[in-house]
UniProtKB/TrEMBL annotation:
Keywords: rRNA processing. Residues 140-161 have a biased composition (Acidic residues). This is Pre-rRNA processing protein. Residues 128-191 are annotated as: Disordered.
C-alpha cells in the first residue's frame, strides 16, 4: 500500500488507520527510502516496500502476540534479504516501536497521531510537487528563451550550418638529431 494511494480512500476505522500508520512509518524510514530510491532491491524496490507494508499489517492481525522486537527482527531480515542492506543502527527498532505504538493507539480508538503524521506527509508531498513543478516551469522558460527568434526545425529539414573553421595546428619544432662522436645518431623515445 503506497502512502500516495491512500489519498483516494482516507482511513475510517482502526484497521485502515493502522495500515496508514504502518505505511507512513515505513515510507518515512530513511534506510528503506534510500534502498528504494537507489533500487537496491532491483527495479521492483517500490513494490517490495508496498509488500512489506501489507506483510506487517497481516502479521499484526494474524499474530497479536507480536511485539516490537519481533517486528524489528522482521524489518532487519527483509532489509537484508530483499535490499541487501545490513541495518546496524537503531532505526529498525525505532520504526518497530512506532508501529507498535500505532497498533496500541488504534486499538484504543486514538487516531490523532496517525492523522497528524498523514497531514505532515501530505504537506511534504505538496511541497515536493510544488518544487518539482517550479523547476519544470523554470526549465521550460529557459528552453523558450533559447528558441525565441529561431526558426522551428522540427520538420526534420537539414539546416545549413556553413563551413566549420579549419583547425590550425602549430607546427612542432623538430629536434635536430644528436650525433655522437663515433657518428651514430641517437634514437630517443617518444613521449
Amino acid at each position: 500500500m503506497d502512502a500516495q494511494s491512500t489519498t483516494a480512500a482516507p482511513a475510517t476505522d482502526a484497521a485502515s488507520y493502522l495500515d496508514l500508520g504502518i505505511t507512513l512509518a515505513l515510507n518515512s524510514w530513511p534506510a528503506l527510502t534510500l534502498a528504494v530510491q537507489s533500487n537496491w532491491g532491483g527495479p521492483t524496490s517500490s513494490d517490495k516496500r508496498d509488500w512489506l507494508c501489507g506483510a506487517i499489517s497481516e502479521m499484526l492481525s494474524d499474530r497479536p502476540e507480536t511485539d516490537a522486537e519481533d517486528l524489528e527482527d522482521v524489518l532487519i531480515q527483509v532489509m537484508n534479504d530483499e535490499f541487501d542492506v545490513v541495518v546496524d543502527d537503531e532505526s529498525a527498532g525505532n520504526v518497530a516501536v512506532q508501529i507498535m505504538e500505532f497498533r496500541e493507539q488504534t486499538t484504543q480508538g486514538e487516531f490523532g497521531a496517525i492523522q497528524e503524521l498523514w497531514e505532515t506527509w501530505q504537506k511534504k508531498s505538496q511541497q515536493k510537487s510544488t518544487a518539482t513543478s517550479m523547476f519544470k516551469e523554470v526549465d521550460a522558460r529557459d528552453e523558450d528563451q533559447e528558441t525565441d527568434g529561431e526558426e522551428d526545425d522540427s520538420e526534420g529539414e537539414d539546416v545549413e550550418m556553413g563551413e566549420a573553421p579549419a583547425l590550425v595546428r602549430a607546427p612542432r619544432e623538430k629536434a635536430e638529431p644528436e650525433v655522437d662522436e663515433d657518428g651514430f645518431t641517437m634514437v630517443k623515445k617518444k613521449r
